[in-house]
């Protein structure tokens, strides 16, 4: 009896100790609601604002957590089937992941029952479609959202109206892409977040998603890079994360522009405080000879600077050296270009390749894992298989970069070309016509 009594006292003590411990360990958890309660007037508003971000962080089921969570912003007249097709999922899974779709499908079921019942007046209940800019959550095995979405880095602040005007888009679409409620009118960088009072109508993000305007015509690259021309070229838009040196020579195919924006956007998202990158010549409007270049004639070539660890001039390329090359960001950029699976060649001077190679070899395991995944995707897309000698990782490395082998010895994508010490030159596959890996330049 005494034993039991002692045990009860012990557990009781333990509990009080635990509770005390909890109180000591977790004061923020207790104090946070108090702070909110203090500002009762904004509470409702705040909880509304916080919901999309928080809901997004936790996928509902274990199955969903394996897949990428994407927010799709609907276009006018889109149906659940259209969205399911874009992301390679079933309509049933959309029904599970998005309440908007669930409501729409339920409504359409009711409407179809009414149509069957009153056949003569069936026109009265057409199936409903989505309104524009509705935010729909999708769990998809495809990682990227729609290709034409790019990321815009905020150095300070911008009104949504200004961003919409500059990027030829609309404020409701910006709100949808970034999960902002209708009460937000301005977005500021997190660096400028005031400590005490949060003014109404302002949200804090370091970057904003924007959708690039879709051109009316599809650009076409005609002929070869050194003899061709460009029809319906599109100009690379100026964005805060890239500096276009000569806008009149920054025309490319729709596809080239998308890939450049996508890759630069990826670096900005992956690594904080990334400076803007200098973009040199692409092609003239209409293409054709663009001295001093031999190529750059059909909108598939682009000269882009490297990232540097020191501040450099933004009106020209800066020679990259072991001292000033930002290996991490430069490699991240090349990797993002390769991940697009649309790059035929990336010309990088051998000394720079050597520096990048040394950087890669520091995290060799991580690189090999990425490379094998990349190789598998490449082969699924119709690339020819490489020589069978060596391990899979070695073969993969050979396909990616020429260094440490001698110049011209491999079919690598990243390869040497003269005078590419201060910038890299990327050539994309033409979208129309032949598109095979390993085609001669
Ligand atoms: Zn070039």
What do you see in this structure?
The chain is built from 14 helices and 17 strands. With 441 residues, it is of the alpha+beta class. It folds into 3 domains: 80 residues, Membrane-bound Lytic Murein Transglycosylase D, Chain A (Roll), CATH 3.10.350; 62 residues, no CATH class; 215 residues, 2-Layer Sandwich (Muramoyl-pentapeptide Carboxypeptidase, domain 2), CATH 3.30.1380.10. Helix 6 packs across helix 7 and helix 11 packs across helix 12. It starts with a helix and ends in a 13-residue tail after the last strand. The structure holds zinc ion (ZN). The site of zinc ion (ZN) has 4 residues, from strand 14.
Can you tell me the overall shape?
globular
CATH topology-level name of the largest domain: Muramoyl-pentapeptide Carboxypeptidase, domain 2
> Briefly, what CATH class of the largest domain?
Alpha Beta
Q: What's the helical proportion of residues?
A: 25-40%
Which sheet architecture does the biggest sheet show?
A: 4 strands, mixed
Number of helices: 14
Based on CA atoms alone, the radius of gyration comes out at: 27 Å
Strand share of the residues?
5-15%
Please tally the β strands and state the result. Answer: 17
Distance between the termini: 90 Å
Query: In the CATH hierarchy, what is the architecture of the largest domain at level 2?
Result: 2-Layer Sandwich
Strand order in space, largest sheet: 14-17-15-16
- The domain tally reads 3
Give the names of the bound compounds: zinc ion
């Amino acid at each position: 009896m005494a034993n039991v009594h002692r045990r009860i006292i012990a557990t009781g003590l333990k509990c009080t100790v635990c509770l005390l411990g909890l109180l000591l360990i977790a004061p923020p958890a207790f104090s946070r609601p108090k702070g909110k309660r203090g500002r009762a007037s904004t509470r409702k508003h705040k909880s509304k604002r916080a919901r999309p971000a928080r809901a997004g962080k936790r996928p509902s089921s274990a199955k969903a957590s394996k897949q990428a969570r994407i927010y799709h912003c609907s276009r006018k007249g889109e149906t659940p089937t259209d969205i399911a097709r874009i992301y390679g999922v079933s309509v049933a899974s959309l029904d599970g992941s998005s309440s908007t779709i669930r409501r729409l499908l339920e409504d359409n079921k009711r409407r179809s029952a009414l149509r069957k019942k009153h056949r003569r007046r069936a026109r009265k209940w057409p199936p409903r479609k989505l309104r524009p800019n509705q935010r729909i959550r999708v769990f998809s095995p495809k990682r990227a959202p729609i290709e034409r979405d790019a990321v815009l880095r905020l150095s300070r602040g911008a009104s949504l109206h200004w961003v919409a005007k500059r990027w030829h888009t609309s404020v409701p679409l910006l709100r949808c892409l970034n999960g902002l409620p209708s009460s937000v009118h301005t977005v500021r960088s997190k660096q400028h977040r005031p400590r005490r009072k949060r003014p109404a109508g302002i949200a804090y993000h370091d970057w904003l998603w924007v959708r690039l305007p879709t051109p009316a015509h599809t650009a076409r690259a005609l002929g070869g890079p050194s003899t061709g021309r460009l029809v319906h070229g599109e100009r690379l838009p100026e964005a805060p994360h890239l500096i276009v040196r000569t806008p009149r020579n920054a025309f490319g195919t729709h596809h080239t522009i998308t890939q450049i924006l996508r890759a630069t956007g990826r670096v900005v998202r992956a690594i904080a405080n990334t400076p803007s990158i200098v973009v040199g010549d692409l092609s003239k409007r209409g293409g054709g000879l663009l001295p001093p270049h031999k190529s750059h004639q059909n909108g598939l070539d682009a000269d882009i600077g490297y990232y540097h660890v020191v501040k450099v001039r933004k009106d020209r390329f800066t020679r990259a050296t072991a001292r000033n090359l930002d290996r991490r960001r430069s490699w991240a950029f090349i990797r993002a270009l390769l991940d697009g699976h649309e790059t035929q060649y990336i010309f990088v001077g051998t000394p720079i390749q050597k520096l990048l190679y040394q950087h890669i070899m520091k995290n060799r395991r991580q690189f090999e894992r990425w490379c094998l995944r990349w190789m598998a995707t490449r082969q699924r897309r119709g690339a020819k298989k490489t020589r069978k000698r060596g391990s899979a990782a070695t073969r993969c490395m050979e396909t990616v970069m020429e260094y440490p082998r001698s110049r011209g010895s491999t079919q690598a994508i990243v390869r040497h070309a003269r005078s590419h010490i201060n910038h890299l030159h990327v050539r994309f596959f033409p979208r129309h016509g032949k598109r095979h890996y390993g085609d001669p330049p």
